[in-house]
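Check out one such.
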Amino acid sequence: MTQASRNLGALIGARICHDLISPVGAISNGLELMGLSGVPEGPEMAMVVGSAAHANARLRFFRVAFGLSSDGQSMTARDLSSIIQGVYDARVTCDWQVDGPLPRKIAQAAFLALLCAEQAVPLGGTVTVTGGEERLHLSTAGERLDPRTEHWAWLSAPEHGNLDNLPAAQVQFALLPGLLAEMDRSADIDLNDPVTISF
């Protein structure tokens, strides 16, 4: 995957997230106003409110993971924690132990790595993220670990990967190595228990 194609893909991702984040946010605000106006609460309303909040959080997450990042941009610890808590709160949880802000490119790599790590726990589990700007470490534990080697191979040998055989749900495995290469880094992985990614 060339630098130009990665940038084009990032611009497409950013455009989609940008165009969707406003209407999804408006839905969330409208639901909040409905609640304040006395609309009866019930399981149906709770489901809609929860779904809108989750969609908003996922869009914010995808905007970082798949958007275009450049040198000099950074993300605060508060923003990182807020985005992660909104996404990883059910089947897969994230124990984010990174203190302080991160350069946006490092944050983007962390979010792509989170998407990789969650694939290793099909029945649910926890991804623990430690370290900081110099080096990040993700450790994944769950009831049943099942890292698909054909996907994880992209992280150690991306030059041998074939995009034609990569499912859309696994695109993060193809994107992470290129982003790390831009920062003169590479991913060290261990598919034993726990499954780990470090870069």
